[in-house]
Design goal:
heterodimer; A: mainly alpha; B: 5-stranded mixed barrel; 25% strand
Chain lengths: 250, 167
């Protein structure tokens, strides 16, 4: 198992191999992502029962929670890529950082905006500077910082390492976002989906929520792969295999 | 792993660990500022300064809500099981404001017993339920069902919902 993983890791480190294998995956992952996301959202927004206190306004949870969770998970993935870029100087890891950041930032922004829209009718305010909301805003700024750092440095290898360091260090904030509602008292409530104990939501709401989350993760994966593939083509534009690849298309 | 990589790994992990400790120390030192509100226990025990602007949070005490029929004036007591005091407010309360429900109020602490609020926010908990289920639970006299009318799990009484409790 370890040897297999190691071999796979080295193989994926080659831009050409990455380009070829993800080209084979994408036609399958795209429809899967669209179907899962569509099923989760339609089920959650139209068919799940209303909440006994919030009525129908709670339905924004089917966008808010998946977006927030995918933004956090994406940041952790970017941190791992940052570590690989810094220690092993792997070109593919630098490409992955660049591929993850834009959609991660978009998801963090979606989570913040849907949260504000949800907060107005339920809490009575769009925004409050509590620990959860503030740390989530910092997550958005970290994503934007990674993007800005990439763009500020001309040499792609140096840019990749600089952004990698910010990605690794920023993972500390992910931990803060996750536990902010436990460590401090906040207006944001605690987490509904629990890993170790029963979630505080009935299955007819939880199932569409989990499906919608899976849909967001898959969509994120697709967009990251597409971004990474175009970045591979750009960085390897002088390589023979890319020229051959492009001459097939053009 | 060769020597150079091992060294780089150590440096990166060292930076993350160092920064993590620094952030942890800073957050611990700023604990009081990051907490969004004072709890009734802190108000009653004298930890919260009288006459200052602040936020307070707690559960609205059963049957404590008094509305002035002529104006929008309303007053209610909030508690965390370890103390209680009265909040005075003039304005429209949020939809989720109910007796037994958590709120966060923004305003001035007039005395140890009275808080003048400028803004009242509803804090909703992490539990979701279909309305029919809630009705059925209430009819069956389930103790946890009567959520809108009084949650027994406030503070230390119920560890299960501890993640959302007001510390």
């Amino acid at each position: 198992m370890w040897n297999w993983l190691k071999k796979w890791y080295h193989k994926l480190g080659s831009p050409r191999y990455f380009y070829e294998i993800t080209g084979a995956w994408l036609p399958w992952v795209w429809p899967l992502a669209v179907l899962t996301l569509g099923a989760g959202l339609v089920w959650g927004l139209a068919f799940a029962p209303p909440d006994y206190q919030q009525g129908n306004s709670y339905r924004i949870i089917f966008i808010h929670v998946p977006a927030a969770s995918a933004a956090l998970l994406g940041y952790v993935a970017m941190g791992v890529a940052g570590l690989v870029a810094l220690v092993w100087r792997m070109k593919m890891a630098e490409i992955m950082i660049k591929a993850i950041a834009p959609f991660g930032a978009t998801l963090a922004a979606i989570a913040l905006i849907t949260g504000a829209i949800w907060g107005k009718p339920t809490w009575g305010t769009w925004w409050v500077w509590d620990a959860r909301l503030t740390s989530m805003l910092i997550l958005l700024f970290l994503y934007l910082g990674v993007i800005a750092l990439q763009n500020a440095i001309t040499d792609p290898r140096q840019a990749g390492r600089a952004a990698g360091l910010l990605a690794v260090v920023g993972v500390i904030n992910v931990v803060i976002v996750k536990y902010s509602v436990q460590w401090w008292n906040s207006l944001h409530q605690g987490s509904t989906i629990r890993m170790t104990e029963e979630s505080t939501m009935p299955p007819e709401m939880l199932t569409p929520l989990l499906i919608s989350m899976a849909g967001f993760y898959l969509l994120f994966a697709c967009i990251v792969l597409v971004n990474a593939r175009s970045e591979v083509l750009w960085r390897e534009r002088r390589a023979n295999w890319v020229r051959r690849e492009l001459s097939n298309v053009l | 792993m060769n020597k150079v990589r091992k060294q780089r790994l150590m440096v990166v992990l060292g930076v993350v660990a160092g920064l993590g400790i620094a952030v942890a120390l800073a957050l611990t030192a700023l604990q009081d500022n990051i907490n969004l509100f004072y709890t009734p226990e802190q108000i009653v025990s004298g930890e919260a300064p009288v006459g200052r602007k602040m936020r307070v949070g707690g559960l609205v005490v059963e049957d404590s809500v008094q509305r002035d029929p002529e104006t929008l004036e309303v007053s209610f007591a909030i508690t965390d099981g370890n103390g209680a005091f009265t909040v005075h407010y003039q304005g429209i309360l949020p939809d989720l404001f109910r007796e037994g429900q958590g709120i966060v109020a923004n305003g001035t602490l007039v005395s140890r017993e009275n808080f003048q609020a400028k803004e009242v926010l509803a804090k909703h908990d992490e539990e979701y339920m279909a309305p029919e289920v809630q009705e059925a639970l209430e009819q069956a006299g389930h103790p946890g069902a009567n959520k809108s009318g009084g949650k027994p799990e406030y503070g230390d009484s119920d560890e299960k919902s501890g993640s959302a409790s007001y510390q």
